[in-house]
Amino acid sequence: MIKFRFEYGMILIYLLLGSGWILFSDELTELLAPNPEVAAHFQTYKGLFYVFVTALLFYGFLRKHLQKLRKAEEKALESDRLKSGFLANVSHEIRTPMNGVMGFAELLKDESLTNEQRLEYISVIERSGERMLDLINDIVNISMIDTGQVRLHLSNVDTSKLVTSLAALFEPAAIEKGVSLKFSPCSGDGMVGNLLLDREKVICVLSILIKNALKYTSKGSIEVSCRREADIVRFTVKDSGIGIPEGQLEAIFNRFVQVNMSYTKTYDGAGLGLAIAKSFVEIMGGKIWAESYQGSGSIFNFTIPYKTS
Ligand code: ADP
């Protein structure tokens, strides 16, 4: 279909309407007012009528077009703002661990260090490396989502085992923070044995949610559970951390969005985790959402269809 630019379309409509009016308005007058006296009145106001009708018409067109442009402008500004925030975050996310690596590598050169100090410095370097690797993984995942390279790989998985197997991965971090981390086996009818699901994606989404729960919780507990509800399986990660303001509960699933840049700077992260989790859950045919009251913890839920082999 041929698509005219807006200004060409306007001129064309204007010319068509104008020519049509000039050519046919006399016939129209005769048709509507056979009486010559009434027809004379019509002739007087004919031009005025045309001006008003076309003005109204063009006002409508322009308004619609400008609304579209303003929306696009707002979107572009918002995306620009988010991208600048993201770049600042990414620089911060690279610079901070990099400083850790460089600084502690320098300290390791000291030959008088005790074995304990050496091990402590090595673990700082390892943690810094992990943080940079997390960022790189997030960027790779986002670009794979954008280029449509993420596919569903279903296999038979013991869901309870999958959930509880994550305990070993996150327990050391929880112990270090003094937070209790509880993993419950899956509950509900038909949850014993294998389910058909995308193991890697479920692990990835759960890991993002557990990592966040650990990051934003300094005391109390984190509970990871899963249960069958009719034709879906619901995974839940509940924490007793800082919580999220109600108005931000949807926005945090958008890329680069962090609740509060000033306090988020005290936490690491580039604002990509939940956006990746959302895309993965949607690819698996499920939904993800959060419930929270600021200051009293958060509950993140995601669902996948219940399928057995
Ligand atoms: P980030 O790398 O900043 O953690 P995410 O996309 O994973 O990015 O999360 C987006 C934002 O959502 C976070 O910056 C944080 O403000 C908020 N958030 C996510 N999980 C939690 C949680 N469990 N408790 C409180 N806030 C959270």
Textual characterization of the structure:
- With 309 residues, the protein is an alpha+beta fold.
- Helix 3 packs across helix 7.
- Strands 2-4-5-7-6 form a 5-stranded mixed β-sheet.
- Helices cover 59% and strands 14% of the residues.
- The protein has helices at 6-32, 36-108, 115-146, 159-177, 199-215, 261-264, 273-283, and strands at 155-158, 180-183, 194-197, 221-229, 232-239, 288-292, 298-305.
- It is elongated.
- It has 3 domains: 6-73; 85-146, Signal transduction histidine kinase, dimerisation/phosphotransfer (DHp) domain (Helix Hairpins), CATH 1.10.287; 155-305, Histidine kinase-like ATPase, C-terminal domain (Heat Shock Protein 90), CATH 3.30.565.10.
- The mean pLDDT is 90.
- The chain is built from 7 helices and 7 strands, in the order αααβαββαββααββ.
- The two termini are 46 Å apart.
- The site of adenosine-5'-diphosphate has 21 residues, from helix 5 and helix 7.
What is the element layout, followed by pairings?
Elements: H1 6-32, H2 36-108, H3 115-146, E1 155-158, H4 159-177, E2 180-183, E3 194-197, H5 199-215, E4 221-229, E5 232-239, H6 261-264, H7 273-283, E6 288-292, E7 298-305
Parallel strand pairs: 2-4
Antiparallel strand pairs: 1-3, 4-5, 5-7, 6-7
Helix pairs in contact: 1-2, 2-3, 3-7, 4-5, 5-7
Bound molecules: adenosine-5'-diphosphate.
